Every structure is written in structure tokens, then in C-alpha cells.
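STRUCTURE REQUEST FORM
Protein name: DUF86 domain-containing protein
Source organism: Weissella paramesenteroides
Requested output: C-alpha cells
Priority: standard
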Amino acid sequence: MRNLFAHAYGTMSPIDIWETATTDIPLLADKINVVLNSNSHILDTIADGRKG
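Status: completed
Returned output:
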């Protein structure tokens, strides 16, 4: 889907755009949250190293 948005945006139908916005993006957000929550200690360590 990313290629369509990046390279053929003008050919995408409003239905394709709506389905991506309401279906694909929420699913992706859920997966990202799982990764972030399961690796929060690693992310905290990385963030702490960048503060100083």
C-alpha cells in the first residue's frame, strides 16, 4: 500500500484511501504498540543514553 500512496496517489480511489485509513493504519498502530510495550526497557535505555 505504501508504494501506491507514494508513487500512484492520483490513481487511488477514495475507497482505497478510506480503507487504509480506517483498517490498515489502526492494525499497524496496534502492532507498533505491542513492539514498543514489549521493548520499553530497551527504548528507555536508548533514550537515557541520548539525554546526556
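Reviewer notes: Residues 13-51 form one domain. The mean pLDDT is 83.
Form closed.
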